[in-house]
Specification:
The protein is built from 5 helices and 9 strands; from the N terminus they run H-H-E-E-E-E-H-E-E-E-E-E-H-H. It is α+β, with helices and mostly antiparallel strands. The strands form 4 sheets. A 3-stranded antiparallel β-sheet has the order 7-6-8, with no helix packed on it. The protein has a two-stranded antiparallel sheet with strand order 1-4. Strands 2-3 form a two-stranded antiparallel sheet. Strand 6 and strand 7 form a beta hairpin.
Length: about 140
C-alpha cells in the first residue's frame, strides 16, 4: 500500500491527500495474504472513493486517474480555484467550470507501484535487505 501512495506522490497526482488517505489495507473486502509455500503475495487494496463497477461513469476518482477516462458530453463541475491556482471540487459551490469533451490518459500509478513486487516475496525481501545493508554500511 505504501508503494501505491508513494507513486501517487511521485507523480504529483493529488494535492489534498483525499485520494492518498482513501486507500486501506484490511478494510471490508481488502485482503492481505502471503502464501509462503509458493512465494506468492496477494494484496487487495481498496479505496472508499472507488467503485468496483466496470461502468466508467460509476468509477471513483482513484480508478479514473489510474485507468484514464473520456468526457463525452460537456457538463458543469461545481467548485472554486484556491489561492495556489488549483481547482477544488465543492458540490455546494455556486461557481465552477464547464468540463468539455476530451480524453485523459491513465497515469497507471497502481501498476507502476506493483512492479516493486515482481520476482515474488523473496526478491522483495532481498531488495529491502540490500537497501538496509547499504544504509548501515555505506
Amino acid at each position: 500500500m505504501n508503494h501505491i501512495i508513494d507513486e501517487i506522490d511521485r507523480q504529483g497526482l493529488i494535492d489534498t491527500g483525499l485520494m492518498w488517505n482513501s486507500f486501506t489495507r484490511g478494510g471490508d473486502g481488502n485482503v492481505w495474504e502471503w502464501d509462503v509455500d509458493r512465494n506468492a503475495i496477494t494484496l487487495e487494496v481498496g479505496s472508499d472513493l472507488g467503485s468496483g463497477s466496470n461502468d466508467q461513469n460509476a468509477w471513483g476518482y482513484p480508478r479514473l486517474v489510474n485507468e484514464g477516462y473520456t468526457i463525452h458530453k460537456a457538463h458543469f463541475v461545481p467548485g472554486y480555484w484556491n489561492s495556489g491556482g488549483s481547482f477544488v471540487y465543492d458540490r455546494n459551490a455556486r461557481g465552477g467550470f464547464m468540463a468539455k469533451p476530451r480524453t485523459f490518459i491513465g497515469r497507471k500509478y497502481f501498476d507502476i507501484a506493483l512492479t516493486q513486487f515482481e520476482g515474488g516475496m523473496n526478491q522483495l525481501i532481498i531488495r529491502r535487505l540490500d537497501r538496509e545493508m547499504e544504509r548501515v554500511l555505506g
